[in-house]
Amino acid sequence: MTDLTQTLARPRARLAGRLKLALCLFAVLAVVPPLAHAAGEPFLIVVATRMMVFAIAALSLDLILGYGAMVSFGHAAYLGLGAYAVAILSRAGIDDLVLQLLAAMAASALFAAVTGAISLRTRGVYFIMITLAFGQMAFFFFVSFSTLGGDDGVALPARSTVLGLPLLEGAQGMFYATLALLVAVFAGLYRLTLSRFGRVLTGTRESALRMQAIGFRPFPYQLTAYVIAGCLCSVAGVLLANQAIYVSPAYMSWHRSGEMIVMLVLGGVGSLTGAMAGALVTIALEEGLARFSDHWRLGFGLVLVAVALFSPGGLSGLLRRLGLVRDAT
Amino acid sequence: MTDPLLSVQNLSKSYGALRVTQDVSLDVHEGRIHAIIGPNGAGKTTLISQLSGQLRPDGGRVLYGGRDITRLDMAGRVRLGLARSFQLTTLLPGFSALENVALAVQAREGSSFRFLRPAAAEQALNDQAMACLADVGLSDRAHRLAGSLSHGEKRQLELAVALATQPRLLLLDEPLAGTGHEEAAHLVDLFARLKDRVTMVLIEHDMNAVFALADTVSVLVYGRIVASGSPSDVRADPQVRAAYLGEEAAPC
Ligand SMILES: Nc1ncnc2c1ncn2[C@@H]1O[C@H](COP(=O)(O)OP(=O)(O)OP(=O)(O)O)[C@@H](O)[C@H]1O
Ligand SMILES: [Mg+2]
Questions:
Q1: How far apart (Å, rounded) are the C-alpha atoms in residues A17 and A324?
Q2: Minimal C-alpha gap between B91 and chain A (Å)
Q3: What's the CATH code, domain B1-81+167-252?
Q4: pLDDT in tens, A48-96
Q5: Which residue ranges make up each domain of chain B?
Q6: Per the UniProt record, which residue ranges are transmembrane (chain A) (predicted)?
């Protein structure tokens, strides 16, 4: 106990430990395409891309759920907003990825600011319920959007372009663009969690009363985090639409929101590396188990039960206990 | 006499049928230590919570520096220089002692809407936080997690955090409870030194400390102030001896 707390308190060591594992993950991901080609399984590149897309979504959710203790059950709405931003803009003849990202983030910021300001008036289970309700509102809005396929969704004419170039056309281009955005989101959130703002956010998670007793009003900080998380998740939505070349309301169903929470629980709530790892493992298991059996959900459920029983801190908790890393990132 | 820094007027608060604060009025003057004593369950913590803005009173007013702050929230009062320490420690357990204090410094210095620069690298925050830790005698625990400190050390850290807000009026809810003999002596000494800078409302069961520090003592029994005055007057008051000091009269 004493040893652990002393180690935890040494800031430098803490930073190094935090980053190392994430960097290893990125390095492994970076060599997936050549390895997949060499192994004659190019399909793996597509799977890995999906894994990384959800890693971005899970990272964004971890900011509010893990660092801010705001358990949102409607986070998939932003995945949908990002995806539909691509569909709507490409229909209007705007194929540029950067413009689509900006539009997706602007729409998500607006939606998050309004719904967050209302949701944050509540606490605990009410917060979960109201974010779920807003998520479902967004879902049904796009279900009834018949010009964009309604329930069935709509196929995109092509993937987005980057500065006029069809960089995302091939599986490899799509893969590396996703990896680049994943690294950027991770790096941004990593800095943010250590910043003044991040301190206020995590402080509020630990004790809102204490924060008020030193002069902070938590609401503006929580709302800002909520908006940032929404914006970042919409980036994953833009990528998801491009990866599938297809957009549907199913992206924003409450199952997806729940699945994102599962990813965090699996990886370790309040740990960026854990969130990322949780998403990678969840999607890998989904794809892997689905190959073996139609009843893969049962297998996945068993894995989750095992995690809950044997490693409450998720994967990052497990690694910490095995002494492989010293702290929660 | 000058206007009081804090003026409490006819404050009342009930939990259902239980009247925890009954028509309490008191004045606290700048540069003084005003002790509030009373038996367990008398309503001392509830009174402090109403003064600090954590609880809304049912009736009455709280004036601070002549301004009515009855409806101001806790954060707003802290920014005006009215800080408190909690009887039940309310720290950030996953933060180091230094970070707990640095966050309080951060609250009053500069914007906290800064997203990229690591807060731990801000020397100005750390220096001021270290000074507060040194004040309470916790320098050597700066990098320990607050959750791993001993009970007495947590009490000291509570105080360091409150000091970091640079209060003009400090509400102390049993700051000595649970501290060891040496730490308690250190803290009593600190309060005596702080007196020039900070006005204090002190709730404390340690009568030696109370009578050594306080300029004024008010006795709270069943939510009501039954006596108020200089320590020697209060000690001599027969009503007080009967109601409260009776059981602790021996050492006085
Ligand atoms: N939230 C609450 N709801 C109902 N009753 C409460 C509440 N908080 C406190 N009380 C009651 O109010 C009374 C006064 O409590 P308070 O904590 O203010 O006493 P205190 O003087 O600080 O006691 P102690 O010396 O034990 O700290 C007690 O009888 C307590 O049980
Ligand atoms: Mg009390």
A1: 9
A2: 6
A3: 3.40.50.300
A4: 999 999 999 999 999 999 999 999 999 999 999 999 999 999 999 999 9
A5: 1-81+167-252, 91-166
A6: 48-69, 76-94, 100-118, 125-145, 173-192, 219-241, 261-285, 297-319
